[in-house]
Amino acid sequence: MMGRAHLIIGTGVSLSVLALSGHEVTPAAVAAAVVGSLLPDIDEPNSMLVSRALPTKMLRLVQLLMIGAAGWVFFTHMAPPPWNLVLALLMISASFMPSRTMRKAIIFLIGIGLAWYGEAYAPWNYIAGCLLIICTLVPHRGLTHTVYGTVAWAALLYGTTRLHGDSIWLAGGMAYLLHLLADSLTNNGIKPLPPFKWKLRFKLMSTGTRKGAKVENVCIALTAVLVVIALLRYKHLI
């Protein structure tokens, strides 16, 4: 499914279920649901989540900084000649990487930073960093589109937010799981339990096609109905 559909369905359904089950819908729970609904696609650099977190303007800024750093390395003789020229040329070449590759590289570096330095502030940063590193190395709809990825995300949320109640990790975990269920409607489906080759797929649509858009719209409409039901019940309770 497209990112827009994942965002609406994952967030709408998870928060509605949360409200209907008697849990408080807090801003933090909404944020967790929004992120969880898009997070499985972090292994796709051009996905809605990654492209919003690392927009094109930011990539252009990174390119300029790399070119500037290359000039600094060359003219200050940070490395002895001719290695200063070699390093400068490598940095300039890296600055012209395709957007997809550059986003992967930035995510990889953020993951290293969290794993290497973040653990001193919170142990969960090490796990988050390792997950980001892995996401840059696996193919799309790989590890992030599995039961293991769902459990890892829910456990990460639970470990970091359990002192604030159950709403946050439940909303984020449900939204993540709903993303996987939505992708199971496509022709390609998902492999929820690798290394087992079994696929969960219903072959109802293909992303980006006219038929796919119709299926997405039906799912969005059903989500809207559920949201209205949740709102009416909440209004009745107050």
UniProtKB/TrEMBL annotation:
Q: Which Pfam families match?
A: YdjM (PF04307)
Query: What transmembrane ranges does the database entry give?
Result: 101-118, 215-234
Q: What UniProt keywords are attached to this protein's entry?
A: Membrane, Transmembrane, Transmembrane helix
**Keyword Transmembrane in annotation:** yes
**In the record, what lineage is assigned to the organism producing the protein?**
Bacteria, Bacillati, Bacillota, Bacilli, Bacillales
Protein's name in the database = Inner membrane protein
